[in-house]
Amino acid sequence: MNVQVPGRPRLAVEALTAGLAFAALLGWASTALVGSFRGQDLPGRYWQPIPVRTDTSGFIAFVVAAICLAASEYLRLRRRREAAPGPPPGPAATLVLAVAETVAVLATGLFVYLSFNAITHPGSLVLHITHLLPWPAEGTVRVEALLLCACSAALWRYLRARYSWEPAPARAAAGNEPASPGTGPVPTPRTIVDREH
Question: CB within 10 Å: which end of the chain, N or C, has fewer?
Answer without folding.
Answer: C
